[in-house]
Amino acid sequence: MNSPAVASTAATSSAVTPSAVTPSLNTILIYARDMQKTASFYQACFGFAGTGEVVEGLIELNSPSGASILIHQAAKSVKLGQAAVKLMFDVQDIEAFKARSLEKGIAFGSTHEANGYQFANAKDPDGNSVSISSRRYRKPA
């Protein structure tokens, strides 16, 4: 015989649609020392849009692709730029994007080639790793 808790869980889970419990990654939260400076970086370099206004402790930026970045004030104890995560942005023409970014004062490192695509790396104002990559646009082997 099932306990009431088990029976309740079974009834609830059968009513939940698969899409309601399928995760999707749409938002990245970035801790920043200077929230405005970090927001400006992602707006200038990657075309994210937002007011730059701090609402509920966050600056929200949105991209035309549907992804969002939330920028949160970092506590003094947070070591920035130490995470084992790199934000990778899909860019078809790496060299053209690097040139456009440099005009805005954002320098990417050398362009690397690997397995039919190119990529280049930079750091945001808080030392977080960002990359531009043409991997999404490579031709299938």
TrEMBL record:
<dbReference type="Pfam" id="PF00903">
    <property type="entry name" value="Glyoxalase"/>
</dbReference>
<dbReference type="InterPro" id="IPR029068">
    <property type="entry name" value="Glyas_Bleomycin-R_OHBP_Dase"/>
</dbReference>
<dbReference type="InterPro" id="IPR004360">
    <property type="entry name" value="Glyas_Fos-R_dOase_dom"/>
</dbReference>
<feature type="region of interest" description="Disordered">
    <location>
        <begin position="119"/>
        <end position="141"/>
    </location>
</feature>
<feature type="domain" description="VOC">
    <location>
        <begin position="24"/>
        <end position="135"/>
    </location>
</feature>
<protein>
    <recommendedName>
        <fullName>VOC domain-containing protein</fullName>
    </recommendedName>
</protein>
<dbReference type="InterPro" id="IPR037523">
    <property type="entry name" value="VOC_core"/>
</dbReference>
